[in-house]
Amino acid sequence: MKFDVELERVLNKASMKGKTVILTTLNDAWAEPGSVFDLFLESFQIGIETKKLLNNLVIISMDQKAHDRCLAIHPHCYALKTEGLVSSTEAPFMSEDYLKMMWRRIEFLNTVLQMGYSFVFTDADIMWLRNPFPRFYPQVDFQIACDKYYGNPEDKNNRPNGGFTYVRSNPRTILFYRFWFMSRKTYPGKHDQDVLNKIKKDRVLQKIELSMRFLDTAYFGGFCETQPGF
Fold first, then answer.
1. What's the whole-model pTM score?
2. Strand-strand pairing, 159-167 and 57-61
3. In this predicted model, what pLDDT tens digit does every residue of 115-125 receive, in sequence order?
4. Domain range list for the chain
């Protein structure tokens, strides 16, 4: 299978040992100086054992303005085209363009897996206060943050949050992302996170023997949640 030479170059340059990269997306709306995206990058600079991880961060630009901004401030940038997208700036939540971007992201992440790269995907409004890698479960295929966590990382009643995932590249995750992407047709008009919540108990995942864990909100949570210190 042939892959984009430029994408391979960017991923290879940013990869840590074991072919793992950190990925985020950036569009026109967040590309302005002084935006949340600048806080995102700053969190890597000031977080605990996170500064070194900037070397492994690849910014996926959803439009030309975002790509120009990325090239001005970061060494690892890749311009992702979304067919039929009018504007990434004017894409209100759950609009047709918004859904195109979300599903293009899932399709793209599957390509990264097919290229043999494991990844942490992070939304650009997540603050990296410390290195998350010591808190990931070893030898698990797919790990994801939660909107609602019930105390058991294997409980599929936990409600996933697609804004932060750690995925290992292997045949199981490649099949899983393909199934996830195809499921957009089964659940039309829904974004990737809602569809994941629909398919997380599907027999297909059992058949491919995908291992899945939900990340504890004590370590991977929002500022609005009250959590004990650690």
1. 0.92
2. unpaired
3. 999 999 999 99
4. 1-125, 136-219
